[in-house]
Amino acid sequence: MKKLGFTLAEVLIALGIIGVISALSLPTFMSGVHNKTHAAKLAAAVSEYENIFGMMLSRENMVDLEDTELGTAISSSNASGINQAYAKYSKISSNSTSFSGLGYTGKGVMKNIQGSAVTDFSFISAIKSNSGAVIFFTGGADNSQTEAQAVAVGAGANTKTSGIYIDVNGAESPNQYGRDVFAFVLGGNGVLYPYGSLTASFLNKVSNNPVWTGTDSTYGCKSGTYNGLGCTSRLIEENYVMKY
Q1: Which long-range contacts link 64-73 to residues 24+ away (Cβ below 8 Å)?
Q2: pLDDT per residue as tens digits for the range 8-43
Q3: Which parts of the chain are beta strand (E)?
Q4: Which residues contact 241 (CB under 8 A, 6 or more apart)?
Q5: Cis omega (within 30 of 0) on the bond before 27?
């Protein structure tokens, strides 16, 4: 007699195999979804912040951001001044000078690309937008160099206003460099230059101006001195697709 259909045992075995395959592939699938989401959020955040810095320059009639109200507050490490200057150009959901004030909890709040806790993450003030993204102003020396020097190395700016971190989803996990936390140098022209790019290295006065694509591991994406901060430039240069 010709057999029709499947036995219950065969169906259960097939369902079991499907379940195992699903369990193994689901984490990879979800990771890919999160990576795409974070990359899209970063693209939107960069556009938003550069528009804000551009408005500051235009409305305050300045050519260098360090001469604006925001730049003055950053140079003097004045957290309240940063918040007040920024709030004139964009709505703020919240702001703080501490991680806990923004809802971050636990030890090792920030992690590098390998997933290890970052112990040297510090900032003057952080501002959370209504979109949920947080921008951290870290300040740092105004490593201005001459325009001729910038042109000579092909850098896009010759003055630095502040170091910047952008956490595209705020206190939500993973809070990890290259995944949802990205590093920039804010140029005096209001442009955000990603770590791992020539201009960021130039403005930070890093020896030999290393880039993420170079042999110098300083700004390597998966390793290096800065443990993945160079992933910011890699992500942007690869059209906001995480290939790492």
Answers
A1: 64/159, 64/161, 64/188, 64/189, 65/159, 65/161, 65/186, 65/187, 65/188, 65/189, 65/190, 66/142, 66/159, 66/161, 66/188, 70/161, 71/161, 71/162, 71/188
A2: 665 556 555 555 544 444 455 445 668 999 999 999
A3: 94-96, 125-128, 134-139, 160-167, 181-187, 192-194
A4: 39, 235
A5: no
What is the greatest pairwise CA distance in the chain?
91
CB atoms within 10 A of CB 183: 25
> Which residues lie below 8 Å from residue 180, measured CB to CB, with a gap of 6+?
38, 41, 167, 168, 169, 172, 173, 174
The number of residues making up the chain comes to 244
